[in-house]
Design goal:
Layout: E1 4-6, E2 9-13, H1 19-23, H2 28-36, H3 43-46, H4 50-53, H5 59-65, E3 70-76, E4 79-88, E5 95-103, H6 111-125, E6 131-137, H7 141-149, E7 153-163, H8 165-172, E8 181-182, H9 189-198, H10 202-208, H11 219-231, E9 234-243, E10 248-258, E11 269-277, H12 284-299, E12 308-315, H13 319-327, E13 331-342, H14 344-356, H15 359-364, H16 380-390
Parallel strand pairs: 5-6, 11-12
Antiparallel strand pairs: 1-2, 2-3, 3-4, 4-5, 6-13, 7-12, 7-13, 8-9, 9-10, 10-11
C-alpha cells in the first residue's frame, strides 16, 4: 500500500523501523490487555490473538496474518506523529474494532487532528466494514471526545472486577452443582452462538453481527492461539453447561491463566475470565465461579496459590452479575465505555459531494419527452367472461 498524504501528514502501514518508537508507548501491560480484551463475551474473541500482537511486527509478518489486523502510522517530515491498530471483530468482517489509537506528544498538528486523520483513514480504507466498535476507559475524557468527534456513540458501560485470593479460596471450598459441564469443541458452535445471542440486548447483538462461524476455531487459529499462549506464558481453560431438556447451553466460561515466569517466579498471578450466563439461569453464577475458583487454585503453583487474583467484567445490562459480584466482595477496578459507529455516517458525510454533482438535473434529461400512453390490460377473469358471453 502506498503512503497516503492527509493534511500535511503521511499515513502509511507500520514498518520495522517504527517499532522502536512505538514500543516507547506500548508497555507490557498494553500487550497483555490486547491479549485478554474482549467486547462481546463470545468465544472467538476471548482467545489470545497472536495476529493482534503481530501488529507490532514488521510488514512481512503482518502480511502472513492478513486480513486479521492492520496498523498504520501518521508521519510528518519523517517524524512519527501517531499510530493506530484495527482488526475485524467478526469472521465476515462486517464489524471492525479499533484496538488502539495513540498520538505522540511531539505531534505537530495536535492530538485530535492526528487522531482524527488516523481514524478517518481506517474508516475509509476498510470498505467491508459496516460498523466500527471500540472500548475506552471512561476516565480518558480526551480520547472519548476524539471518538465522539468522529461519529462514535456510547452503547454500554463495562465494569472490571477483581476477586482476591481470600475470596477465591472461599469460593473453591463450595462444591459446584454442574452435572452437565462439557468441554468446548467446534461441534458446540451453534449452542454457544445461541447462548451468546440470548445473553445480550438486541442493539448490542446487531452491532457485533456475530454468526455461528465466530464460535468455531479454524486450524490456523488454533495454531496461532497455541503459539500466543506459549509466548505470553498463559494457559486457557473453557467449558459450558448443557441443559438436556432444552438442548441448549445455559452457561459458558473461558479462563485465561497466567503462568509464572523464570525472571519473576514469585510475582502475583492475575488470571482473567470471560463469563456468559443465560438471563433465565442466573443461579449459575455461584456455581460457575466456584468451578472457576477451583481451577485457579488447582492450576496455580504451590508458591503462588496464596498470591493470585481473578479479573472479570460485567456490563450495565447485567445487573444480576453485578449484584452477585458485590455479594462476594469483589472489588471494582475500573470502568470502560463501549462505543460504536455505523457506516451510515459515511453516507451522511459524502452527501454534500453527491449534492454537488447535481444528479437530479442530469437524470431529468433522461426522462421521456412525451407521457407514455397506457395500453389496455385485461385480466384473466374478464377474458373468460367475454368468451362466455360470445358463446
Amino acid at each position: 500500500m502506498q503512503p497516503f498524504p492527509v493534511l500535511g501528514n503521511t499515513i502509511r502501514p507500520l514498518q520495522h523501523r517504527d517499532l522502536e518508537i512505538i514500543q516507547r508507548f506500548a508497555s507490557p501491560n498494553d500487550l497483555e490487555q490486547i491479549a485478554v480484551s474482549d467486547l462481546s463475551g463470545c468465544r472467538s474473541r476471548q482467545k489470545i490473538s497472536l495476529h493482534q500482537l503481530a501488529s507490532w511486527l514488521p510488514a512481512p509478518v503482518q502480511t502472513l496474518l492478513k486480513p486479521y489486523v492492520r496498523a498504520y502510522v501518521s508521519e510528518c517530515n519523517g517524524i512519527i506523529q501517531g499510530f493506530i491498530r484495527v482488526s475485524p471483530f467478526n469472521n465476515n468482517s462486517s464489524t471492525w474494532q479499533i484496538d488502539r489509537v495513540v498520538v505522540l506528544p511531539e505531534a505537530q498538528n495536535g492530538q485530535h487532528n492526528v487522531g482524527t486523520q488516523l481514524i478517518r483513514y481506517c474508516l475509509e480504507s476498510c470498505l467491508e466494514a459496516r460498523t466500527w466498535v471500540l472500548q475506552v476507559d471512561i476516565n480518558q475524557k480526551d480520547t472519548i471526545a476524539l471518538y465522539r468527534q468522529n461519529g462514535f456513540q456510547p452503547l454500554a458501560q463495562f465494569t472490571d472486577w477483581e476477586i482476591d485470593t481470600a475470596s477465591l479460596h472461599e469460593l473453591a471450598q463450595h462444591s459446584p452443582d454442574l452435572p452437565n459441564l462439557m468441554p468446548v469443541s467446534n461441534a458446540d458452535a451453534s449452542l454457544l452462538y445461541q447462548l451468546d445471542t440470548a445473553a445480550m440486548p438486541p442493539h448490542i447483538r446487531q452491532v457485533y453481527d456475530l454468526n455461528i462461524d465466530d464460535f468455531r476455531a479454524k486450524t490456523i487459529d488454533k495454531l496461532v492461539n497455541h503459539s500466543s499462549l506459549l509466548i505470553n506464558h498463559l494457559q486457557d481453560v473453557s467449558g459450558y453447561v448443557y441443559e438436556p431438556q432444552r438442548k441448549a447451553a445455559i452457561g459458558y466460561f473461558y479462563l485465561l491463566l497466567q503462568r509464572p515466569t523464570v525472571n519473576q517466579p514469585d510475582e502475583k498471578l492475575i488470571h482473567h475470565c470471560q463469563l456468559t450466563v443465560h438471563p433465565a439461569y442466573t443461579w449459575l453464577y455461584p456455581e460457575l465461579t466456584s468451578q472457576i475458583a477451583q481451577i485457579v487454585i488447582k492450576q496455580s503453583p504451590e508458591k503462588q496459590a496464596e498470591n493470585v487474583s481473578l479479573q472479570l467484567s460485567s456490563a450495565d445490562y447485567q445487573p444480576e452479575r453485578e449484584d452477585y459480584l458485590e455479594g462476594i466482595h469483589a472489588q471494582r477496578q475500573g470502568h470502560s465505555l463501549l462505543m460504536a459507529r455505523s457506516v451510515w455516517h459515511k453516507i451522511r458525510e459524502t452527501k454534500p459531494v453527491l449534492d454537488g454533482l447535481q444528479l437530479s438535473r442530469m437524470l431529468s434529461g433522461l426522462q421521456p419527452t412525451q407521457k407514455p400512453i397506457p395500453g389496455r390490460i385485461e385480466t384473466l377473469p374478464q377474458q373468460h367472461q367475454h368468451t362466455d358471453e360470445s358463446l
